[in-house]
């Protein structure tokens, strides 16, 4: 009967380690997804509706995402069009685009807003590359923090030192794989930014 007890205890410990590992992996995945969103907002020369993803519009006194008050489309590789659902919102949308500080100069024709996406200068490309690198470093810090939290949780468990080492090694492997994904994502984004 005591053997049964020990098995149950081991199972509970394994479940605890599994929970710590899964939780850590989830945090790391969230950091990677956040980085992906950050990268989508970094303009690499070609017009994309996601460029205006962070624009907020004053909609009857409430700050509302642009996507909830207008359709944003690409007319061509260098032009965005914003078609508001209510024409009286055109000045507010223009104001929101200017406040977002994206470097765009919106023009309105009374019906919609047209944004010509300027070609990026070499200097601007380098600035954007630095912004992308900073976002990637931020994501790496988040992943390392998740590793640190997981290792602290593992130290608190009542398992043997050998089992703790094995669990910490697994967390390190997970960390390394996510850091590699971040490096690959940054390298890809940097190529996209620097391509003329």
Brief summary of the model shown:
This protein has 196 residues and is an alpha+beta fold. The chain has helices at 2-40, 90-99, 122-156, 161-194, and strands spanning 56-59, 62-65, 70-76, 79-84, 107-108, 113-116. Helix 1 runs antiparallel to helix 3 (122-156).
Spell out the key features of this protein.
single chain; 4 helices; four-stranded antiparallel sheet; 196 residues; two-stranded antiparallel ribbon; alpha+beta; disordered N terminus
Characterization of the model:
- With 196 residues, this protein is α+β, with helices and mostly antiparallel strands.
- It contains 4 helices and 6 strands; from the N terminus they run αββββαββαα.
- Helix 1 (2-40) packs antiparallel against helix 3 (122-156).
- The longest helix is centred in the N-terminal third of the chain and has 39 residues, at 2-40.
- The chain is elongated.
- 24% of the residues are buried.
- Mean pLDDT is 85; it is low at 1-7.
SSE layout:
Blueprint: H1 2-40, E1 56-59, E2 62-65, E3 70-76, E4 79-84, H2 90-99, E5 107-108, E6 113-116, H3 122-156, H4 161-194
Antiparallel strand pairs: 1-2, 3-4, 4-6, 5-6
Low-confidence stretches: 1-7
Distance between the termini: 72 Å
Report the order of strands and helices: HEEEEHEEHH
Number of helices: 4
Spatial strand order of the main sheet: 3-4-6-5
Please state the average pLDDT score.
85
